[in-house]
Specification:
Blueprint: E1 4-13, E2 26-33, E3 42-45, E4 49-53, E5 58-61, E6 65-68, H1 73-83
Parallel strand pairs: 1-6
Antiparallel strand pairs: 1-2, 2-3, 4-5, 5-6
Length: 84
């Protein structure tokens, strides 16, 4: 299985504050490398996120498996503030 590398990534949620929780889903947004449909360093929104393992650097969406590169700085800051 060929993995696609995604760098500068963040987890993003579909919908907005008025969306029903059951109607929303999460996906990754970042720059891809080695994707069959996009040139390297293209910013993309993935399909629905199914599995995320930051510790092992892998994410699975409905359509493919991604190797996780660096997390987006803004997203890392957001996560660290949520832990406080």
């Amino acid at each position: 299985m060929a993995y696609v590398l995604i760098k500068n990534w963040a987890v993003v949620s579909s919908g907005n504050q008025y969306s029903a929780p059951e109607a929303t889903f999460q996906f990754l947004r970042g720059n891809v490398f080695g994707h069959p449909n996009y040139p390297d360093n293209s910013q993309v929104d993935t399909s629905r996120l199914v599995f995320l393992d930051v510790e092992n650097g892998v994410a699975t969406t409905l359509s493919r498996v991604y190797r996780l590169g660096n997390m987006a700085d803004e997203y890392a800051t957001y996560l660290s503030k949520r832990k406080e």
